[in-house]
Amino acid sequence: MTETGTLAESYTEMTELLLPNDTNNLGRALGGAVLHWMDIAGAIAGMRFSNTQVVTASMDHVDFISPIDLGEVAVVQAYVFNTGRTSVDVKVDVRAEDPREGEERKTTASFFTFVALDEEGTPTEVPDLECPTEEEAALREEAVEGRRRQFEDLVDRMEE
């Protein structure tokens, strides 16, 4: 496939108001709800980039570094930062916003891999990734480096 796509074309941002059905007994977001939102945003980014259906192949390590509290807005951002022959790698970041105070904080991030499927459900080729702007190139480099660091940290923990 000689077709190309850009990081910007894949960019996706979703918002979710944290309501009681998605909270634990402390009034904070259930981890499973956050992972669900991340998977959806990642899939949308993958579909926008590949112009075809995608399915989740893997999700890297996830640390929940800050809670999302009842009534806050979860902002989930995703973009394609790398491609294989039939797969796309997507960085997904989540932050919490307090709409009353105007404050925000990072809550989690992870890296997903999706496989593109044709109409018969068979893996199909995806476009090559282009990053024509400095901003796109910087986002791609940040994601590549972040995934590399995360992998190295995992190896270090396994060796302990």
Automatic annotation (TrEMBL):
<dbReference type="InterPro" id="IPR006683">
    <property type="entry name" value="Thioestr_dom"/>
</dbReference>
<dbReference type="InterPro" id="IPR040170">
    <property type="entry name" value="Cytosol_ACT"/>
</dbReference>
<feature type="domain" description="HotDog ACOT-type">
    <location>
        <begin position="8"/>
        <end position="120"/>
    </location>
</feature>
<dbReference type="GO" id="GO:0052816">
    <property type="term" value="F:long-chain fatty acyl-CoA hydrolase activity"/>
</dbReference>
<protein>
    <submittedName>
        <fullName>Acyl-CoA hydrolase</fullName>
    </submittedName>
</protein>
<dbReference type="GO" id="GO:0006637">
    <property type="term" value="P:acyl-CoA metabolic process"/>
</dbReference>
<dbReference type="GO" id="GO:0005829">
    <property type="term" value="C:cytosol"/>
</dbReference>
<dbReference type="GO" id="GO:0009062">
    <property type="term" value="P:fatty acid catabolic process"/>
</dbReference>
<keyword id="KW-0378">Hydrolase</keyword>
<dbReference type="InterPro" id="IPR033120">
    <property type="entry name" value="HOTDOG_ACOT"/>
</dbReference>
<dbReference type="Pfam" id="PF03061">
    <property type="entry name" value="4HBT"/>
</dbReference>
<dbReference type="InterPro" id="IPR029069">
    <property type="entry name" value="HotDog_dom_sf"/>
</dbReference>
